[in-house]
Amino acid sequence: MSILLIFLGILIYILILTVRFKVSPFITLISASFIYGILEGNDTVILYQVITSGAAKIFQLLAIMVFCGVCIAHMLRKSGFIDTIVDDISRVMKNPVDTAGVGGFILSLPLMCCNTAFVLIAPVIKQTVGEKVANPYLYIAAIASVISFVLIYPSPAVVPVIATLMPEFSDPWSLDITLIPVAMVMLVLIIFPGRRKTSDIKPVRVPGRQNHSRMKVWAPVLTPFVLIGLGLLIPTLSFFSMISVALFCGMLVAMLAVGKEARNEGVHDGTKYAGLIMFDLCGAGALGAVIASGSFPEEVFTLVSGNVPALFLPFILAATIQAAAGSRVVAAATTAQILVKSGNFFLIEPAALVLMIAGGSCMASFVSDPYFWLVKRFTGDETEGVIRNYTLPLAGTGLVIGIAGLLVQTLSQYI
To answer: φ, ψ for residue 123 (rounded to 5)?
Structure first.
């Protein structure tokens, strides 16, 4: 059986189990890994070793980051600190559209999860502008949170790409010199149309709980960034430039700042949610490892050679896998593991490679995407409305990010 047909069949299998039967992504991805490997003719003992090693690699890369980010998020929610954070942003931004966009954009970075950032900020947006008119602002926050999540290192959507495809890359932080400006441009491209769309809306601001010390409120969010900056600038403190270390310190600061009740409940709930996320990501690592260990990468590159430029392949693969698996981290990690089997990606500028994978992972955020249903639940819109206001704008964003990757690669050849 053609390996490309097996791959297509596995994508359909994942889509059916995820969308139609609502099966856990971990179960779906692990079973897909076994089915794919058996159909390709792998020895079952070796196949098991590949699956476990693929899952272990993702756990090693992301476990501490995800756990710390999610626990920080839940402690901020339980303590009510998130109300103060969004209120502070609104005082600076003035326009509620800007508050929604910048809030979603910023929060997904230290929390290491765009879904978690949206769950935190959405109720505050409703409280700030009024629930009846909140939907346009909710869509902006959702898309903005995805933009920073897929583009800016050290997001879990970017780390696997760099760790897998560029293990010898000495300074991954330098990629942000390119990635952050692209992310900022994309944020502006989302906010300005949002301003026009909401120009006739009259928000009714309902003040939230604002009786917290600003130092305590912002310390858990800012601590990781401060420590990373110190670690990059001061060689003797380079230990703190490791994102897992910086986030762990941020979590410790949150535990001290929020109080006993919020600390206990936040860590308890965060541990459960982080576990669900990590199991899903480990399933993605397993599937990616099985696909990468077989003949699929070579067949794909042989098929597209001379027909599709090598730079477009990461974009296409990420879009295809994201459409089936739903998760942007799954798409990025699996795409990276498939690409690592080919030498073609070495010719691509690292920032351009990240941009192409990020752009592809935004192209098909539909029914297989858990975020799609999360946005639908908070907005209360029909499926058509979510497609119109979330899926299509995000796909447009992904296309522009892909074009940015093409420009970066083209410019790198002349510099």
So the answer is: -60, -35
Q: What is the pLDDT of residues 208-238, one digit of tens each?
A: 555 678 899 999 999 999 999 999 999 999 9
CA distance 178 to 355: 10
pLDDT digits (tens, 9 = 90+) for 57-97: 889 988 999 899 989 989 998 998 988 888 888 888 878 89
The 8-class DSSP code of residue 54 comes to H
Place of tokens 């907005």: 379
Q: Is the pTM of this model over 0.90?
A: no
Check if the beta carbon of residue 164 is closer than 8 Å to that of residue 172. no
H helices of 80-175, in order, are 81-93, 96-107, 114-129, 135-151, 159-165
Long-range contacts of 47-52 (CB under 8 A, 24+ apart): 47/290, 50/286, 50/289, 50/290, 50/293, 51/286, 51/289, 51/290, 52/286
Nearest to 339 by CA among 160, 138, 146, 81: 160
Check if the beta carbon of residue 361 is closer than 8 Å to that of residue 322. yes
Which pLDDT does position 340 carry in this prediction? Answer: 83
CA distance to 71, 119, 252, per residue, from 77 (Å): 10, 9, 16
Q: Which two tokens stand for residue 376?
A: 């639908």
Q: b/e string for 72-86 if b means 16 or more Cβ within 10 A?
A: bbbbbbbbbbbbbbb
3-state secondary structure of 282: helix
